[in-house]
What does this fold into?
Amino acid sequence: MARLRAQLESHQVQAFIIQSGENIAYLCGFSGHGATLVVSAEQALLITDYRYYLRALEETSGIEVIQRDRDRESLGQCLARVCAKHSVLGFEAEHFSVGQWQHIAEHLRANTCVATVQVVERLRRVKDSQEIACIRGAAEIADAALADMLTLLESGITERELAIELDYQMQRRGSQGVSFDTILLFAERTALPHGEPGAKRLCEGDLILIDFGAVRSGYRSDMTRTYVWGEPTSEQQALFDTVAKAQQAALQQVCSGICCHELNHAAQQVLASSPYHRYAGEGLGHGVGLTLHELPFIKANAPYQLESGNVITIEPGIYIPNYGGVRLEEDIVVTETGYQRLTQAPQQFALRSEHGDY
It folds into this structure.
């Protein structure tokens, strides 16, 4: 909150109107929905309604919680009332719909409203030790859930059946739902970077792509593993080895101070020099925390220099239409001299096609 208040002068506003649920949770601890936070140099006001009022009182401290009567007072009217003494307001432009903001602006005609972008998101880039511990805890849940799910693999099982089992195993271990809709695909469908699990059944020799994550205290993990059911063909093994080599090339460069585009270039050099260069996925990774995809993004022309405490994914991939794809993804925390892995599940490729050791 103090770091946000330090941004008031540089943005030439007297108060920020925060609408993003993740940004509100980050600033004051409230984890519910249907809330708007107003932060000025003197105070912070959390506007909510009867559904979340008591929860807001329990989860926050040093914040004035306002219970808005939704039948008698619109959000715009409430903001006009509580912001009357602030002539210039900054608002999160990317977190209000056009229709919602047009209605609010009708009631803020006495104020000058300044659109701001990613003010709080930039503060969230560097994680403290408590945030890192939460992401590590989410990754541990995902690691254990994956190990249990793999023991259920058998020919004939469907993508959807396995995805449901993986989600269940994560939540059984304490995950707050799932980090995102689990991606679990077989055979040629693994070429869909964000495909949805369906009714396809597992057959001998199929590629298996699993992209998933758990949630702990609001913080997310994000991991991808690619396997083959049985013995890999030479082509499948070459795909896997190429992606693994690209990932290692990037990981070897990670440290505080390196530019994101340099990491992307390290991985892309490996992919570009391979026979699969036409099928390489764009970008290398992203920050992860209260949201699945957040700053910094690891891609070409990304100017951000990594800092100690950034938590990012490294996830190169190759996707060949009508054949299949391979992606490998790790969550890591950047340190001054390198990184620490948060995801620990083994990156083995071949899985036995009968019950046994995985």
User: Anything to note?
Assistant: The mean pLDDT is 96. The radius of gyration is 23 Å.
